[in-house]
Amino acid sequence: MSSIDKLTDSQLFQLLKENADQQAYAELYNRHNVLLYRRALRLTSDEEHARDLTQDVYMHLWEKRKTIDIHDGKLLAYLYRLIFHKSTRITLKTSNDHNYFDHLKATFSEGHNDTENRILLQELEESIASALQKMKPKVRDVFIQSRFEDKSHSVISQENNIPYNTVRDNIRKALQRLKIMGVGLRCFF
């Protein structure tokens, strides 16, 4: 067998997934840590948040290694998406702009217009749009009001003349549908 640094990301991830191989984990960290940190820094513009995000991604990789399903050598793309979703969640929590798509577009229009970012944004928007189209209209409307218009459950309940518990149940159903569709949920919590 060749030395660990000669293995592909897919091979290293398989070792990590199947055997909790710490050398494989360390090699993946060494290969991608700088790239992920730079990505996080570009997205957050904050060194401390970027470091924390990068560490969170590697913790997630270790903790969820048995359940993560990555095909065709797309580990780096998976890690980039994780950084993206985690940074978006942090930024949305600290930002006055709660409209998710407006925030994403603003982030990418401020000098972050490389091809990769546009592809990731396009994929995310398409995944969300596709998942939303497959939801029942009432579930979709309640979810959009909650997550994209930043309305509270009580406001949605009053405006739509439906019980509070129905609002909560519809949002739960929508989140389950997004999870089934494979859309990253971190951006909606």
TrEMBL record:
<dbReference type="Pfam" id="PF08281">
    <property type="entry name" value="Sigma70_r4_2"/>
</dbReference>
<keyword id="KW-0804">Transcription</keyword>
<feature type="domain" description="RNA polymerase sigma-70 region 2">
    <location>
        <begin position="28"/>
        <end position="83"/>
    </location>
</feature>
<feature type="domain" description="RNA polymerase sigma factor 70 region 4 type 2">
    <location>
        <begin position="126"/>
        <end position="178"/>
    </location>
</feature>
<dbReference type="InterPro" id="IPR013325">
    <property type="entry name" value="RNA_pol_sigma_r2"/>
</dbReference>
<dbReference type="InterPro" id="IPR007627">
    <property type="entry name" value="RNA_pol_sigma70_r2"/>
</dbReference>
<dbReference type="Pfam" id="PF04542">
    <property type="entry name" value="Sigma70_r2"/>
</dbReference>
<dbReference type="InterPro" id="IPR013324">
    <property type="entry name" value="RNA_pol_sigma_r3/r4-like"/>
</dbReference>
<comment type="similarity">
    <text>Belongs to the sigma-70 factor family. ECF subfamily.</text>
</comment>
<dbReference type="InterPro" id="IPR013249">
    <property type="entry name" value="RNA_pol_sigma70_r4_t2"/>
</dbReference>
<protein>
    <submittedName>
        <fullName>Sigma-70 family RNA polymerase sigma factor</fullName>
    </submittedName>
</protein>
<dbReference type="InterPro" id="IPR039425">
    <property type="entry name" value="RNA_pol_sigma-70-like"/>
</dbReference>
<dbReference type="InterPro" id="IPR036388">
    <property type="entry name" value="WH-like_DNA-bd_sf"/>
</dbReference>
<dbReference type="InterPro" id="IPR014284">
    <property type="entry name" value="RNA_pol_sigma-70_dom"/>
</dbReference>
<keyword id="KW-0731">Sigma factor</keyword>
<keyword id="KW-0805">Transcription regulation</keyword>
